[in-house]
Amino acid sequence: MRELSCDVAVIGAGTAGIAAHRAAREAGARAVLIEAGPGGTTCARVGCMPSKLLTVAGRAAHDARAAHRFGVRVPEVAVDGPAVLGHLRAERDRFVRHVFEGLEEWPADERLDGQARFLDGETLAVADHTRIRFRAAVIATGSSPSLPKPLEGLGPARVLTTDTLFGIADLPASLAVLGGGPVGIEIAQAMARLGVAVSLFDVGHELAGLTHPALTRAAVEIFGAEIDLHLGTEVMGAEPDGDGVRLSVRNPDGSQGSVRVERVLAAIGRPPNLEGLALEAAGLRLGEHGLPDFDARSLLCAGGPVFIAGDANALRPVLHEATRQGRIAGRNAAALAGSGAATAPEPWTALAMVFTQPGTASVGAPYDAQAEDARVTGAADFPDQGRARIEQRNRGGLRIWADRRSVLLGAEMIGPDVEHLAHLLAFAIQDGATAGRLRDRPYYHPTLEEGFETALAAITRGGAGTG
User: Is there a single domain that holds both residue 332 and residue 364?
Assistant: First the structure.
């Protein structure tokens, strides 16, 4: 077995791992990057980029069908499933190649292929070919889709995950989506707009990451117009039915039912890839589900000179957070390897969004019904908002909450182009702004941002117009 030594060993060549390796090298450390799988980042291969390509295709079909609202007649809209998926894969592969081009710039002796496992607190084995002595390590192994027990054993011909969905040759005639979170609702709407009969099942009653009651109701109404929603419904079993799948379900009222579909998509979450790492051998203190105890700011694990970043720590599994966490972990690992100390930067303002149409977003502190006495909430709704109505995208609304001094805390929203409103609010919260300070900015007419100003005005009036 080959013997190597380094300052920092980074396990995983995804978004967080690449950022950690680069940060460690920039800090002067000798770093080695280890990858057991295809690499190329989850986002580029099976996550945000291919899913957005599917979403854009669905939006194009939907907009063509709806053009009559403006007096524009499109005689026929035909969806070519193989062409949609072929374009998706071509663009997806381009994004992945771009990631690998960056890796190819690094020396070959800094990149190793194979499954890594800890032998002790300062040694890793990579497959059966290399043993690495390290001063500090970064776990950035990403995540993998979870498969519900009722779907186990049905095989990839019937059951899809986000890791396999984008490899299918053609669109299915019908699809059951299990999970109404960001991934599930985004793909469900895109598929429905591409002509697939979509049924979505979730044991909860919320969609797209929204939790504010008014916005949750709006989401159910909006998405329910395109998707057959089964909320509060549990999938109890699944079995082959011809070339499809028959799902057995328990409805909210306790009654039993069944649904037959051609394929099922499991979208109930992506747990961290920690199996096979032998974390106990490194002396790490493990918590629930085998996840190491770690400091959420420095990312240092309890029990050893090991950091954990990106989807592997399940803290905030989105790309911009993985990039920042990778940089923090890489810098801190380099510092620890050089007998320095790890730093603990303040976390960014939480920011999450879903690229449905209309989109949804959550910013900052989450909605908390128990905290209403300590908060002031401002509301704005889009049905009568000028720019939204002009574009016939006048659905949804937003809720912004602040403390009693009007310092902005957080928000949820569903509506047209809320990704841009969410960014503005995230910047303001990060800077500690008040509603009055943010309101005292130019809001051009007619823009969607005017709705944002409406909610801020409600906060400055002490919550008038909340809902």
Answer: no
Q: What is the pLDDT averaged over residues 437-457? A: 92
Known binding residues for NAD(+): 179-186, 269
Chain position carrying tokens 């929203």: 413
Q: So what's the pLDDT on residue 369?
A: 94
- The three-class DSSP label of residue 317 is coil
Distance CA 11, CA 33 (A): 6
- Kindly state whether residues 278 and 135 are assigned to the same domain: yes
For residue 445, indicate whether it is catalytic. yes
Structure tokens at 195: 């002509």
pLDDT category at 37 given cuts 50, 70, 90 is confident
How far is 456 from 25, CA to CA, in rounded Å?
A: 45
Annotated binding residues: 52, 141-143, 179-186, 269, 311
Name the catalytic one among 21, 212, 423, 445: 445
Per-residue pLDDT band at 42 (split at 50, 70, 90): confident
Residue written as token pair 């009007």: 406
| In a shared domain, residues 299 and 427 | no
Q: For the chain, what is the domain count?
A: 3
82: left (phi over 0), alpha (psi -120 to 50) or beta: alpha
Strand partners, 178: 201, 266
**213 preceded by cis ω (within 30°)?**
no
389-418: average pLDDT: 96
The percent of the chain in helix, strand and coil, each rounded to the nearest 5, is: 35, 25, 40
Side by side, the strands of the sheet bearing 228-231 are 159-160, 263-266, 174-178, 197-202, 228-231
The domain that holds 414 is classified in CATH as 3.30.390.30
Q: Which two tokens stand for residue 366?
A: 């989450």
Reported pTM:
0.93
Residue 108, class by beta-carbon neighbours within 10 Å (0-12 exposed, 13-18 middle, 19+ buried)? Answer: exposed
In this structure, what token pair is assigned to residue 137? Answer: 């390590």
Query: Are the CB atoms for 361 and 396 separated by under 8 Å?
Result: no
Q: Locate tokens 């007649």: which residue?
A: 73
Token pair for residue 425? Answer: 């609010």
Where do runs of H (alpha helix) occur along 116-207? 182-193
Give the chain's mean pLDDT.
93
pLDDT tens-digit series, residues 201-214? 999 999 999 999 99
Are 401 and 331 part of one and the same domain?
Answer: no
Distance CA(421)–CA(351), nearest Å, equals 11
Q: Give CA separation, 339 vs 305, 313, 333, 336, 342, in Å.
A: 11, 25, 10, 5, 10
**What pLDDT does 466 receive?**
39
Q: Specify whether the CB–CB gap between 169 and 159 falls below 8 A.
A: no
